[in-house]
Amino acid sequence: MDLTVRKSDLLPELQLFQGIIERKNTIPILANVLIETKGDGLINLLATDLEVGLRSQCVASVAKSGSLTVPAKKLYEIVRALPETDIRIKEPSKGKVEISADLFNSRMQTFPREDFPTLPEITDDLSPVSLPKAGLREMVTKTQFAITGEDTRYFLNGALFILQPGKMQLVATDGHRLALVATAREKGKDEADDIQAILPKKTLWELSRLLTDSEGNVDYTIGENHLFFNIDGRQLISRVIDAQFPAYARVIPTSNNKVIEFDRDRLTSAIKRVALLSSERSRAVKLQISKNNLNITSSSSEVGEATEKLTIDYGGDDVEICFNAQYVLDFLSVADSDGVQLHLKDEMSQVVMTPVESDGCEYTYVIMPMRL
Q1: In what order do the strands lie in the sheet with 284-290?
Q2: pLDDT digits 0-9 by tens, 193-212
Q3: Does the fold of domain 252-367 match that of domain 2-115?
Q4: Under CATH, which number does the domain 2-115 receive?
Q5: How far is the first Cα of the chain from the last one, in angstroms, to the nearest whole number?
Q6: Does domain 252-367 have CATH number 3.10.150.10?
Q7: Which of 229, 260, 279, 329 has its CA 20 to 30 A from that of 60?
Q8: Using 50, 70 and 90 to split pLDDT, how confident is the model at 23?
Q9: pLDDT in tens, 85-97
């Protein structure tokens, strides 16, 4: 292989691969990116951790076609450190790759192309579904933080993606909170009425990195064990979590009759300040709700205590309820609305938080209270 590529063309693609590559993988070849050329003026790039994979390409001048694998992190660091210039990637001998530009020259060890895993392809019998980029990005942003990354219950390490006629939903839960987002979409011809798949947490993170442009659509294809997202010439490949997602609708309360509206920024600032003196382990803050008043308090035997008062429009019974401050702040940070509502019933029941303005996106956030 012998090719020349501009830094400005190659660097953005290599940057996207950094989230795919596992630094401490027990399979050394998975730390590499596969580079292939076929003499058509393009280089194809591929990286995977066997759960998530990414295919990409960029323009290049190819003197000699071929394929090789290069350490992804080191290649990215080298290209990033070079000035804006042409970069030459050459295979002088088997097991070696040269990266050079201007007066710089480097040589690295590589692994055989044959050792790189084969990723699934979209077969002719699979039909893509068109999804709006903006809606998909909104759903990922509003749910990905609610996925656990450490739970032994495998099904909680992902989010449930549901396609229905004219609608798509994404649901995530870690057992203590639940985030549900729904937005409109156009149903394609001959498309099934209810298509469901559990997307791994890492897939959602990579989707958020790829969905930077809100214009246009994403082609979503469902295979037997893998999902494919085609976005702006790049393809994200994800293994499906083969498990039964919890019956999430059962934990969304429908009888919460106490509703309080807050200014989102004001509530965010107050909780952030009070949480500074909460227990580092529980991050607990208490909301003491009475007629037209809200006291937010925290205490820690090691540090001290804090309180902040807010004026609210409320005339119901007094309620004291305790939450993990970070869970509330996670919702407030992505609720695209000046106002948010808190729907509650009593001290022990789940609380629902929603934005006041929906902006075409239905967002429901459920939090389990902590024991006082």
Answers
A1: 304-311, 293-300, 284-290, 319-324
A2: 788 999 999 999 999 999 98
A3: yes
A4: 3.10.150.10
A5: 66
A6: yes
A7: 229
A8: confident
A9: 999 999 988 889 9
